[in-house]
């Protein structure tokens, strides 16, 4: 079972870009037209040097004296071309943004859906935060390159080529001289870029450390005060802030050095052209206009040579981002919809495990051949020591993952043959800590497969006997719960989770009993709501309190990945086995 998502795909650079483009086909929409427009825009830049040369040689320095009309005519043509190419340039940007945003939106949606399809197993194997970052920041690194980098790289090359051709046409010796001056930059720039990237990587690490230090000190303020660790914490923060400052200054120093060497090199090139051009001019081999034009063309060299390395760096980032996103998309979703789902009508809710074995990826087997029948409509409590496999068993019943061997059946049908949508409508898992979304109580209760209106929410609340509680809240069912339900107590969050499960209306409920302590009043409400919720339904509860087992129809005892006892509480308590021992020790502890 390969539930882990590899950190990155192992495609080469070209393969990665090709696969990335396949995944976001919108990226290539109208690309040919965009490239043509971009080439027109780049060619338009040549207009300035050419206009200057024409205006100088044939206007200002015309053989019969300055010809103002000619200068104006040349400038007007130059201006018109410049305006047109300016339009082309704006259009290129708009088109690029539009197609790249569309393409990246496709990629985000696709990756996000796939993350949802991955089994609970993969999601827990992979840190959830890291998955979120693949959908967000990794796609962002691609976006920077797609929006600017890719085309800039092409246009820079075109600009260098056109500028060189223009220079050669004016004087090939000057063109050669300029290339010689810029050669060191072509060699040094990649090195400078690497040094700058390394410095910024260091800055990012330091920012992370600084945020962690500050964040921990705020979140853990009570513990810090309780242990008198304020000074030690302060020192840690000071250190993190100083380290960040040092790294940021180093990075900026490198950027400034790189920038000024670029300026120096282009200055050297300009000076060399002025000297060589003047000598050629004196020998009658170069016109003043041509010399001016070449000086302008030199300016068109600096940008592309500096940009090229930066863009190559962005290409590297984008390829790394693409590789990580592709790795997510290439992780097979293990819990998939059956090709031909069963059409059998829903049964009463009888569950069965036959020879079920399970191992987490790369781990030892944690369930070793479990055979178990859960009759329809029974209230079942699963008990056992911590780590014995209770939660794993319940997750398999909900098909959050599939067994390594054996079968899980609902009303005689293998869960793998049930359409996932049908399965989720018939079996609902209520986790220990149900996730609450930032919204009102009613919105959170209505969070089920079928959207529910206020009447059904009120009905669910009344059916579970929770009105007395909701009536005490400031805005009743419209009370906001805060992010993750932080405005509610742990017990109240459980009540919301139960109402939500009630509204989902499934015939089979799988409950992971909450272990967090709640006040006695809420405790009573929770257990009353649970009684009402499970009435008439099949329910399997991972019981952390043996009181739950006492009131269940059937108790299942799991020990070290095996079901060792099944029976009613009185029978098992009298049998003198594992359950009887657990129960005796629980009674003495709580007595
Ligand atoms: N996501 C996971 N990846 C790898 N191993 C896991 C994972 N979840 C559980 N395990 C291992 O599987 C075994 C059974 O765990 P499980 O959570 O099913 O036990 P449990 O009886 O529910 O325990 P508890 O009462 O503490 O919740 C344990 O050894 C546990 O370490």
Automatic annotation (TrEMBL):
The keyword Transport applies. GO terms for molecular function: ABC-type oligopeptide transporter activity; ATP binding; ATP hydrolysis activity. Its main location: membrane. Pfam families: ABC_membrane, ABC_tran. It comes from the Bacteria. It is a multi-pass membrane protein. Keywords: ATP-binding, Cell inner membrane, Cell membrane, Membrane, Nucleotide-binding, Transmembrane, Transmembrane helix, Transport. This is ATP-binding cassette domain-containing protein. It comes from Georgenia ruanii.
